Amino acid sequence: MVVTLVLFLVGGLVLGKAADLFLAKAYRDESLRAPLLRCQECRRRVAHRDAVPLIEALNLGRCTACSARLPLRWFLLPVGCSAMAAACYLEFDDAGQAAVGAVFSTLLLALVFTDIERRLLPDRIVLPGMVLAAGLAWLFPGMSALDTFYGGLVGLGIAVALILASLPFGAGAFGMGDAKLILFLGILLGPSAVVVAMFASTLSAGLFAVVLLATRRRGFGDYLPHGPFLVMGGLIGLLWGTEIWDWYVR
User: Does the pLDDT value for residue 98 go beyond 80?
Assistant: First the structure.
């Protein structure tokens, strides 16, 4: 068990590192045919050493060519993916299920950084994620092909309801990227776990907004990305959504 857990920790680091290096490709203004870049300032291409997880720590998170500070995701994304891979292994009985969970966790965590860095939840991640979830989510405990379908319907219903509810606050109050992410989560988690995920994301976003308002770091009408909170709820739903739902309905 310990050896397998270590393998999942290392595998999560590798997945997170790959997501970090390829993340610029997910943005709409980046060509898929363009070379991988390690630094957006000097446009330095990815070298072999850059493929090593957390190697940037040797240069204090700065580009080795121009010394520009790299986005903090070089550290947070691999470490977060590693932690989620280990959590999936500890939560799911089957190593195959845990590996699939680690892949979806990587996709979701990558979306946190696209939303923070570009205010964007790219179709290049979300749409393939939907297709992958439709084909693989039934592997998770308690899930079936019908659950992915019904979960998609529930996710779609939640997304439409939130879009309609946000209309009085302006066109940008709730974006289509957020709606697509909720649909993705519905397909991935199933009908009950996606409800848990949405409750967790709404509660956490509300509490965070209250803290920001109380400390005057944000005001009413200021932009607050929804993606990180949706992802956090999705990860909770992935690991414990069914158990939380079963506890609640007893």
Answer: yes
Contacts of 40 (CB under 8 A, 6+ apart): 24
Token duo for residue 46: 């990815």
Find tokens 């929804």 and name the residue.
226
Distance CA 156, CA 99 (A): 27
For the chain, the domains span 1-120, 125-250
DSSP conformation letters of 182-200? HHHHHHHH-HHHHHHHHHH
pLDDT in tens, 149-173: 999 999 999 999 988 887 776 666 6
Question: Roughly how many angstroms between the first and final C-alpha of the chain, as a whole number?
Answer: 33
* Alpha carbon 208 to its chain's center: 18
The pLDDT score that the predictor gives to residue 132 is 96
Burial degree of 9 (CB within 10 A; 0-12, 13-18, 19+) = middle
Residues 6+ apart with CB under 8 A from 179: 159, 160, 162, 163
pTM recorded for the entire structure:
0.92
Task: Name, in order, each residue with C-beta under 8 angstroms of 95's C-beta and a sequence gap of 6 or more.
Answer: 4, 89
Residue 72: count of CB within 10 angstroms of its CB: 12
Q: Which residues contact 166 (CB under 8 A, 6 or more apart)?
A: 173, 174
CB-hemisphere CA count at 13 Å for 142?
Answer: 18
State residue 189's pLDDT score: 96
Rounded Cα gap, residues 232 and 204, in angstroms = 9
